[in-house]
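Service request form, structural biology core

Requester: graduate student, group of Dr. S.
Request type: structure prediction, single chain
Budget code: on file
Notes: please return the result as structure tokens.

Sequence provided:
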Amino acid sequence: MDYDLVLINPNTAKPAVAPLGLEYVAEAARQAGFTVGLLDLCFADDVRAATTEYFAANTAGLIGISVRNTDNCYLLSQHSYLPALTELVCALRDLSAAPIVLGGAGYSVMPQQILRRSGADFGVIGDGEGPVVELMKSLQSGGPLADIPGLVRRVDTGIVAEQPTWESLDGGPRLPRQWLDYPRYFREGGQGNLETKRGCAGQCIYCADPHSKGRRYRLRPPRVVADEMERLLEMGIDWLHLCDSEFNLPPAHVEAVCAEIIKRGLGEQVHWYAYLAPQPFSAHLAALMKAAGCVGIDFGLDSGDAQILRNLGRDFTPEEARETARICRQVGITFMLDLLIGGPGETRQSAATTIQFAQECQPDCIGIALGVRIYPHTKLAQMLAGQGPDNPHLCGHTEDNADFVQPVFYLSAELGRVAEASAYLTKLVGSDERFFFGGSPDEQSDYDYDDNALLVDAIAVGARGAYWDILRRLRVGEQWW
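Core staff response, request fulfilled:
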């Protein structure tokens, strides 16, 4: 079949996570009158063979590839997904004459750099719905490309990128959830996914979300969120994870979404998890979330040391985080604390303070990421600009990587090098089984979710929910499926 647009999901990591962004782009293109095909490689036994077979039977005017992540963001493993992306682009050149456009949250983190290295023709920063439609119109009519918001393209002098416009989400396409095999994603992934907003107004020095999703909150109407939740329930998908970076910001929107879910009686049918900032949070919000079906929260605590929190650009105090933990225990919501150890100013004493603080908060689970991944366009990258690979705080791919495309991390030299710092944290944690280390070679303590055999096996026999909660329950023997 001849398609105007063929969208490709190249993410084969398991447990399977549905590429929600592709559904948005596919539906927007369909509503604009274009024909759309979708090649989902997630369940392919042989990616090259599946791609070859698809393009032997179908043609495309434009090929779009979704880039969910650039790497797994863990210093202890440093797994980059970009070589596989480049290999896919090369394979497509042999199979189709169609131009290739890249998009997705991972691509938007470092758009010019990935376009240059991958060999693709175009890229889109941020929301893909409008720009991909405009790109197809321009390619078919021979119209100008310079006016397409967020478009990254090759010119004679190199690569140029237009500024994205960060459109309101009030008028975006409602998702029919018909483009992907969502029941299979649920069976093999253990949870559905849903977003209530895009954008982040935070000032965290390491976070690339403001660059890739915009620096202001763009809110999906609560009725649209609830409509989509109902659609997922119709397909039997009753365990969800919300995709928002920090669900509780802005607070009024969170309350409106929860109120709509409760009004429709969905809170009694669905179980969902979310990422939250430790503040703002209150007993009222916790009770509202629980009534709306929330069964677990992952808080981005980062540190229990006040100075380190300030160094990282966080806008809450340890005392506020402690109160948030108390509320969760009081209301009865399972919660996890995510720690980020090794940022600017980190010492052995501040790391010890953080570990002790996390334990005192009495969470159900604690995750540790050692080292801070440095992404272009972040404040941390700006702080390190021009310092070169000899900076004693840098670990990972430090040579020939000035643009930070390959995994490179800030690890405070006060903690020692990677092995020494890891051993020190392991000693601090001791026998506390609530702790998981991201990227650890120890399968039992690793909470890197990509290609995690423990998760895959548990989901295969019925486990459902957030991956951190499944791993936690496996460790303590709470098999509820």
